[in-house]
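WARN  no MSA supplied for this record, continuing single-sequence
INFO  ligand: coenzyme A
INFO  echoing inputs
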Amino acid sequence: MSKIKPSKGSPYARIMGVGGYRPTRVVPNEVILETIDSSDEWIRSRSGIETRHWANDEETVAAMSIEASGKAIADAGISVEQIGGVIVSTVSHFKQTPAVATEIADKLGTNKAAAFDISAGCAGFGYGLTLAKGMIVEGSAEYVLVIGVERLSDLTDLEDRATAFLFGDGAGAVVVGPAKEPGIGPTVWGSEGDKSETIKQTVPWTDYRSGEVAKFPAITQEGQAVFRWAVFEMAKVAKEALDVAGITADDLDVFIPHQANERIIDSMVKTLKLPESVTVARDVRTTGNTSAASIPLAMERLLATGEAKSGDTALVIGFGAGLVYAATVVTLP
Ligand SMILES: CC(C)(COP(=O)(O)OP(=O)(O)OC[C@H]1O[C@@H](n2cnc3c(N)ncnc32)[C@H](O)[C@@H]1OP(=O)(O)O)[C@@H](O)C(=O)NCCC(=O)NCCS
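INFO  complex generated
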């Protein structure tokens, strides 16, 4: 017989508020064309991207996260001391330790919230959301801040035709808290490490340090392989997330897929047979691919522009380097 008392959490969790930060510098395709042989027309037609944001020296991972989090906390209508957990998903914070989450928790003014970073590429927001829900239901935190943040411009090889135009910088944050009814469905997630070569850092930091390679590491990818995987496999994962939430495409109001490439988004919409009435996030056009930040940034924009509204039922799905993926149905804050 166990002597341990059961933990007391909330029966359910929901997203209570969302906030985003986009760096001030807007970078049009013309700037990308200075370093690769391409065209504005090619980039737009193959990826949907027209502009992206690149961070300046002051727009650090921590600074962008704090801006986005402040907005999310205000939107949630809670005080910062109530936050018991800070989860930061990023692959582009260049200081290995301590976790940037601890600095963010402190600078925001939380009361010693548990804080840690996770690395789950473009699925990072869904991974963080799932952990946050678990913490709230389990009872180790009442409110958890989930931040997706990237400075991918630091990890972009501007001479690589396959990636130079894709990536952008920014931060998105949500506050997850207790709820009386389910606000975050079961997550369908997983990893396919046998495909780890398809999106990866060119070389380990140590090869650069030792001088073995002269070029600073960057993210590289096998574009077509990733594209095929996203289009065929991720539509199945998205469908499964609807199934486990007990809804169909007809019950959905909003679809917020990872903003990787507009052609992938179009293909998923078609495969999932989403009705015309479903609002589809297309933030990639002006934000590019911001990896872990892309879903909360797109969510924030849809709510800010009125294209989506509080209480809407949304399917979110992230996928990327690993390869990893996570899909969940949520109620919008
Ligand atoms: C990157 C991507 C847009 C490239 O498009 P693609 O159609 O697969 O391009 P390919 O590499 O097959 O190249 C097709 C042609 O375009 C050319 N090309 C490649 N990159 C180019 C560029 N930046 N500008 C102009 N032409 C380019 C190639 O040389 C090739 O020309 P060819 O037919 O004369 O040989 C596409 O593969 C993609 O979106 N992949 C998924 C990327 C993604 O979302 N990653 C993140 C996941 S988290």
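The chain has two domains: 12-179, 188-331.
INFO  checksum written, moving to next record
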